[in-house]
């Protein structure tokens, strides 16, 4: 892909202002006067998951092509440079220039990281992008990430996820008591309120834990990735929806000093490349999940909806948790006070048009 073609494409993805800034630097300026840089990016994901891991590769490829090879980013899978769940630490310390991760992995450091990715009963993918790019989300998150010597760029979204794989059915709250479940972010604290025992496990380690019975259930992303990881071979029940991840954002994290040392042209190109990868990931999942779900069902997977009892109890527990955090954590409160009214307005608007359209189309598809 030529540099000019990439910049044009990125504008279509919603990064028009950023791309315009990058395009203001003529090709000779980048090709002749810009420095040659070789960065390392530590991913939290295994190479086998080509879509979620691949977002970082997409971003890196476009940066390379847009700068005529002057700015190169090499992507390393989880565990190759640093453990999968220590990407933020590596970026903060300057061990690597960049990382690609789900920031809710770091809610143990501060629960505010959850809002950067997804929280239970939060925003869907479109709403999340609206909050980040147009609703003030990036501004409040940039202030928060600066305290961790990092700059965040949205770089991927899976869309609403499935609700996980279970070795046994869970029909009531009683079935949640003592259930050991791999689940990320603040959702783990909600599961704990329901009586479960949350576990934080990197993607590559979920299958053996589920197979051995170390855990009773596990959530990851959705049909395309879950089929690749083989969860259907060790847990027959596949639940929906993933009420804890309506539209989780993956982030490219950049060491703050490294970011500030970049020429403005490179900052603009990197921002535009991440924005393209952000929308491209969800498009790829949306295209790949339907066929994967059909294959899973065809192989014997039994899909189940969460009961109303579990959904309502989880909703209540989640908002109790948010109120607790607002009362005790000023950083959480600052971001949450920006996020919550935006979410409430988005839900009201989507209920009018999007929900009714989707519900009608769903009903019509069943009639066929």
The 3D shape can be described as globular
Structural class, from helix and strand content? alpha/beta
Regions with little confidence, pLDDT below 50 for 5+ residues = 1-26
Q: Tell me the Rg in angstroms.
A: 21 Å
SSE run: HHEHEHEHHHEEEHEHEHEEHHEHHH
Mean model confidence by pLDDT: 92
Please indicate the percent range of residues in DSSP E strands (runs of 2 or more).
5-15%
Estimated helix fraction = 40-55%
- Secondary structure tally, helices: 15
Q: Kindly, what is the distance between the CA atoms of the first and last residues, rounded to a whole number of angstroms?
A: 42 Å
Count of strand segments:
11
The strand order across the widest sheet is: 7-6-8-5-9-11
User: How is the main sheet built?
Assistant: 6 strands, mixed
Q: Can you describe this structure in just a few lines?
A:
With 368 residues, the chain is an alpha/beta fold.
């Amino acid at each position: 892909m030529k540099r000019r073609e990439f910049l044009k494409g990125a504008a279509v993805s919603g990064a028009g202002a950023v791309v315009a800034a990058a395009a203001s630097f003529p090709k000779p300026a980048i090709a002749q006067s810009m420095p040659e840089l070789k960065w390392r990016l530590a991913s939290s994901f295994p190479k086998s998951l080509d879509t979620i891991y691949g977002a970082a590769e997409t971003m890196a490829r476009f940066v390379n092509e847009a700068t005529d090879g002057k700015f190169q980013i090499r992507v390393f899978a989880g565990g190759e440079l640093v453990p999968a769940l220590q990407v933020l630490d590596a970026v903060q310390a300057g061990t690597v220039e960049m990382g690609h991760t789900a920031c809710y992995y770091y809610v143990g450091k501060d629960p505010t990281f959850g809002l950067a990715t997804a929280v239970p009963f939060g925003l869907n993918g479109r709403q999340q992008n609206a909050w980040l790019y147009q609703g003030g989300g990036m501004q409040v998150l940039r202030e928060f990430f600066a305290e961790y010597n990092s700059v965040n760029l949205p770089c991927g979204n899976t869309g609403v996820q499935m609700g996980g794989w279970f070795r046994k059915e869970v029909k009531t709250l009683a079935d949640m008591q003592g259930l050991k479940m791999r689940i990320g972010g603040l959702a783990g604290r909600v599961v704990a309120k329901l009586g479960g025992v949350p576990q934080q496990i990197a993607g590559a380690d979920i299958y053996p834990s589920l197979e051995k019975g170390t855990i009773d259930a596990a959530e990851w992303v959705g049909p395309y990735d879950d089929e690749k990881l083989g969860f259907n071979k060790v847990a027959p029940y596949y639940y929906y929806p993933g009420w804890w991840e309506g539209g989780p954002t993956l982030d490219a994290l950049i060491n703050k000093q490294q970011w500030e040392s970049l020429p403005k042209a490179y900052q603009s190109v990197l921002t535009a490349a991440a924005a393209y990868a952000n929308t491209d990931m969800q498009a790829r999942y949306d295209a790949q999940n339907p066929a994967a779900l059909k294959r899973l069902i065809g192989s014997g997977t039994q899909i189940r909806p969460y009961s109303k009892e579990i959904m309502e109890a989880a909703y209540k527990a989640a908002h109790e948790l948010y109120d607790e955090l607002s009362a005790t954590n000023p950083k959480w409160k600052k971001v949450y006070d920006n996020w919550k009214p935006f979410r409430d307005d988005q839900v009201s608007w989507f209920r009018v048009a999007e929900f009714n359209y989707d519900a009608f189309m769903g009903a019509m598809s069943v009639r066929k």
